[in-house]
Design a protein that fits this description.
By secondary structure, the protein is of the alpha+beta class.
Length: 911
Amino acid sequence: MTQVNRRRFLSGAVAAAGGGVLGASGLSGIAAADPAGRPFHSGGKEITTGWTFAPADAATAPGATMSSAGQVAGMKPAVVPGTPLTSMIVNGEYPDPLYGHIVTDTVPDTLKDTGYWYRTSFPVPRLLPGQRFWLRFDGINYLGTVWLNGVRVGTVEGAFQRGIFEVTDIVAKADRVAHLAVLVGKLDYTDPPALPSYASGVTRGGRNGGKTGVTLKNGPTFFCTAGWDWLPTIPDRDLGIWQPVAWSTTGPVRIADVQVTSTLSADLQTADVEIDVALDSSAGKSVLLKGSLDGQEFAQAVAAPPGASSAKVRLRVNQPKLWWPNGYGEPYRYRLTVGAESGGQLHDERTLRIGIRRIEYTTPMRSPSGAETNCLAITVNNQPILVMGGNWGLDEALKRIPRERLRAQVRLHREANLNLIRNWNGQSSTEDFFAACDEYGILVWQDFFCSTEGPPPENTERDLANIRDCILRFRNHPSVLLWCGGNEGPPPQPLIDGLDALVAELDPQRAALTSSAGDTGKNPIDGYRSGGPYHWVEPSKHFSLSDGTQWPPFHNEVGSYSIPTLEFIRKMLPESSWEHPDDFWADRDVNGNGGNGGGAGYLALTAKRYGELANLPDFARKSQLMNYECIKAIYEASAANMRSGVRYPRTGVIMWMTNPAQPSFVWQMYSHDLEAHSSFYAVQHACRRVNVIFNSQTFDVVLANHTRDVVQGTAAVTLFDLNGTAFSRASFPVRAAASDHTVLGSIAAQLRKAPSEVAFVRLSLTDPRGTELVRNFYWAENPARPSGFAGLDAAPAAAVSAVAGIRGQDVTVDVKNIGQPVALMLHLQVYDTRTGERILPATFSDNYLNLVAGEAVTVRARLADARPNVGVRVDGWKVDQRASRLTGHGLAVTFNQEALATDPAANTFGR
């Protein structure tokens, strides 16, 4: 293969889900049986039952005793994978501290001040001659010492390092039962808890990482658990065996690692695939490497001398099916199996899901200094990609991340039309995460473990060892876009040099960035930054920041408040706090670390823009409009200025944040319980691959075309007054170039003629045959007399029809505006008619609907399972319940009276 600049070009790497993971759970392919009918090789079997735990300072027995059949006093049931606190919650020692509580008032911060013993027993097979037995730990936070049947096996250092141990000799002497004990060591450095204070206007003292940030000296751990502006201090700091533990067997020859790369031709018609197999043999043998790639079989004899060795297999794939990012094509994954066998016995085998794709990383631009520089701009399979992504700070505050929950979180990103997740500081680095991103076509910006919020890691070698293992473990995933050294500033030079050397050695086809704020490596990539804003701003502000005159063109952190539904607010706060913002609100991050003047400032801003806040339901409904207009603009502003026609065309935006680690008021597009509120639909509507956009800074109508095809048709613009009467119409012919934006025309003059301070703007794009491709909707200030949107309360209420039916897991709702006034932000929920509780997860095709007179839409909601007692309830900005018609076929359809109760006799909010 011709050597290329790794910082600019990834030549179609074939990527493998699970490559290098020893005996991954669920692998197919069992060795041919020996004469006694027992297999040589068995895939991984997770050890999930029988675990107990106790604080290490309370368990005085040594490791040899802990890893024996004897009883040990003081042990309690444990959840593995899990943390001590999650086990304590399951055991009833503490309530869930994230709901209805202040975490630091509910759980003592002393949980972090000790290590923990974990122990279990599990059956093991009688080993065949030559058979080897392996233990695998996918993640222990922070330091793990492993004992088996009285013998100290080894250690695992750092939260993101695997521990893979051969324990053949120990198991061979066991009487069909293995006794496993793990001592989880505490952090070397900790701060006291960071406490919430609503009155302060900042989050937990305004300092991320605790009072001093000393937690970052530990090296690879979940340092955000010290307390961040989106996460309370977690009392046990998420110590524990947080990832699966499994055992497996092999023959004398083990497949220690598989790396799969390919070279995809420029015309995308062929791919040359190279499979590098690392072998580990306990005895000199020749083995046959056998396998197949989607039925294309291969076999190759190789030597496997004692110790480590390697072998290569080369294949050519004609007319390859490509892995595409979400919205550009199918993220196709081939099935690859690789096995090592001899004498009719399978020694070891891997089954991988791989993707073939070609990535280019940069485009030349002239920076403000006039120098030409290589700017971050992603092209996949020759298709320019406007990155529209989301930041993840942590997958879940207490690391409660079963596979199905994590897949649901990633799936929501696909359904929101996003194409990238930034794994902030690598805090969510798991096989399940990358496998889900592979499946759903989500690129991953993979950070590593350094932040500017505190001192660098004290043990550089440990940090680099964790980085090395992450690259080895995840480099085969097609979703991995690039590696990044850390957050918002450069790590110390030894870590920069170490990362660059590791990527050059282990994964030279991918880009490696120094940090999320800039790149200082060889052939540096330019043109991206962090830096917010992280608070609510008017949509026109985002359009001005992304208007093509601002440097740099790629913005990887920009966010806003994101208030959840009324039901979720009530779920996460105690009832005494519902109408009275206080420290319970602060523990749910309402201060946003000072943005908008903290929580009190945001509430005042909401009241100024939409009118005085009467009660909590009124705050919730007005916040949905605040969410929608600001967050929609974050993405639409970049789409409206991508590619040509501007000085610095936008190449990417990553919202801070999309996934919440805890119940929260800020930085999310769905709630901690996975309910999508208006922020989600703002993202979904803004990130459509063909979209017609209203630029609230210039008052232009813009066609954004992310696709590889020219778009033709007609864009229609209709403006409505507060009564829902159309007062202006315009249309623009459309011929929009591929992967570009096209300014169609201005509606500034029409808006200035609006009969009131507020107008509604409906945009529609139809193809040449008159079929509607997309519609978009805005409420806009009259630029001649801008005064916010308090006037919306003077608009007449809308009459709507909702006809719902259910079949199995699928709910369908036909919604229509049957009156003249605009139906604004109509919201549908699926609920249990017996309890009134929301049914979650429920995946809606659309929500927070905006319908003008006579307009209709069909919404589909998918439930996790078929169930009885399903109902649909409806709320919105202003709904005329008497004039509306609700009909259910096989389920109840009602108005959400509590959400609509926004006009109390006397205002109660904040009083």
